[in-house]
Write a structure and sequence with these properties.
Layout (H helix, E strand, L loop, with lengths): L1 H21 L25 H4 L3 H7 E6 L9 E6 L3 E2 L17 E7 L9 E8 L6 H11 L9 E4 L2 E10 L2 E12 L2 E10 L3 H14 L1 E2 L10 E6 L3 E6 L3 E6 L5 E9 L5 E11 L6 H16 L1 E10 L9 E11 L5 E11 L3 E10 L5 H17 L2
Antiparallel strand pairs: 1-2, 2-10, 3-4, 4-5, 5-9, 6-7, 7-8, 8-9, 11-12, 13-14, 14-15, 15-19, 16-17, 17-18, 18-19
Helix pairs in contact: 4-7
Length: 386
Amino acid sequence: MKKNTLHRALIFLAVFLFLLAQMPSRSDAFLGLFEKTQAPPPEEPKTITEKVIDDASFKQHTKMYADIPFDDTTLEYEIYLPSDWENLLSDVSGDSSDLNRKILGKVGNYRSPLTGGARSQVSIYAIELEHEIAAKDWLENHILSKGYGPEGKISAPNAKTASVSYVALTGVIPFHVLAKAQVYGTVVILIEMQIPLALKEQLSFLQKKSTNSFKLRSPKDGTIENVKWFTITDAMKFSYPDSWKVAYPDFKDPSRASMQLQNRSSADKIEGLIQFMAVSRQPETNIKKEIGLLRDHITGLYNIDVREMLSTGRAPVYSRFLFSRQESYSIAIGKDGSAEQEIWLAVLGDQDWYIFIYLITPKRINNIYSWGRNTRALQLVLESIK
């Protein structure tokens, strides 16, 4: 009995030693419980583009790129980008008259190395403007006409500068685009910098800093359109963009003078009108009575139904006037109320005159470009009144 037990123990030991011999010689490999972890592969060096994360690294890793498109010194520009970017449009020559009022002309194009499987890019465009319009309204109209939706509100510190971001697809890769429009005289410059959407957080500082570094070295100044001047008796003198047409001047009664400016399309359709009415202050006149007469005039002439007030505040006029007010309303015109419009009303008064100016324009949501032209013309008129 003892011999059998000993025999079985020896057989078991032999089998155990045989199996042990088949295992790796390293004792720490047994069951992998004490397996040492592999050292991670060395981190792939970052591109110069990825190194720009703050003001110090922007200064260190970027350089100035500059060009004179079409040999036109008024379009000479500079922009700061990472030093590893390439110029894809090294020769922009020819006549600046090539700039088309309807088609954007590309005057600069720069691209980064592959970063995260995609390339960032900056495109610079120039376009001759035809009408007075604020940069904000031009930019929003441009973005929407391309089929993109603005990401948040458009930033517009003044009438000549605006910026907005949106998401666009290039092939199957989504990009985050920051677009900035700057109006210089008769030209708007559009800078669009796109970065891979997946790297938005990492590259957003560079995107904003580079876009804001763009500038023209010898920009044009002045208005987009030529201006004309008009005088209504001794009540007021003002200027207006020369694409607007004078209509219905009525000076038969010098104490109650009126005229109209019209924004007409190429098909001769009225796309906006500004009405002027100047009333001499007499013992029998007062502002409350005149506003009532104005309300009756507008509602009777255009069959207006006022829907809601949109804005209210001081009119942008200089200190000649003792009081000034500007308000805007959403309205419906016509018996069925189907023609939705906006009316902007300015009421001004000095020692001798009450002046009423109102604009009727398509709603912004229905026609941004016409709305932008109309409201910009009204602002320029009010600012010019002498």
